[in-house]
Design goal:
CATH architecture: Roll
Low-confidence stretches: 181-185
Mean pLDDT: 87
Number of domains: 1
Oligomer: single chain
Strand order of the largest sheet: 2-1-6-5-4-3
Order of helices and strands: HEEHEEHHEEHH
Structural class: alpha+beta
Strand content: 25-35%
């Protein structure tokens, strides 16, 4: 049986992903430091999670500042829509049982379909010897937009058990490969 060729749109999407991966591989160290994790695979995984867990993701560059020959800081606003996948993968504790179930259901209904404008900062550390980015720091402000949407008390409930790391990585971190984790002593 002949294998069918991908449709033009599917091919374009696949081709675009390949170009993006090639760009990352050419411009970043294979073992790039990313907060508590490292490696291009981890970066790609996080990019995929943001793109999959949120709907209608887009960004707008605010400004870029070259702090030194080795350090560039980029500020953007990430525009996302909270989807069912967001609630399941980033805020799974809103599926509570017992007395808290009603509150969780209420917060889920308030959040679903809402658009958030997330202020972000990306710090890129450039290594002149390897001629690539060796460290990338990421900060995504989830707090301010969620407080604006829900108020302080409800935002506290939502963010208290959210699957958002201090370096803005999202999702279940137990899935991260042990080889991509940085040993801490």
């Amino acid at each position: 049986m002949a294998e069918s060729s991908p449709r033009p749109r599917e091919w374009l999407q696949s081709s675009e992903k390949e170009r993006q991966l090639l760009f990352l591989q050419a411009s970043m160290a294979p073992d790039i430091f990313l907060g508590d994790f490292r490696g291009i695979d981890t970066l790609v995984q996080q990019l995929q999670r943001y793109g999959t867990y949120f709907d209608n993701m887009s960004h707008e560059q605010e400004h870029m500042v070259q702090k030194s020959d080795q350090l560039v800081v980029l500020s953007v606003v990430l525009n996302v829509t909270i989807s069912e996948a967001t609630l399941q993968q980033v805020f799974p504790r809103l599926k509570l049982t017992g007395q808290a179930q009603g509150r969780g259901r209420f917060l889920r209904s308030r959040m679903l379909g809402q658009q958030l404008f997330l202020p972000c900062s990306f710090c890129f550390e450039w290594d002149e010897i390897s001629n690539c980015v060796v460290r990338m720091g990421t900060s995504v402000d989830f707090l301010s937009p969620i407080v604006e949407l829900l108020g302080v008390e409800d935002a506290s409930i939502v963010l208290n058990h959210a699957l958002i790391a201090s370096d803005s990585a999202i999702g279940d971190f137990s899935e991260q490969s042990a080889s991509n984790a940085i040993a801490t002593y």
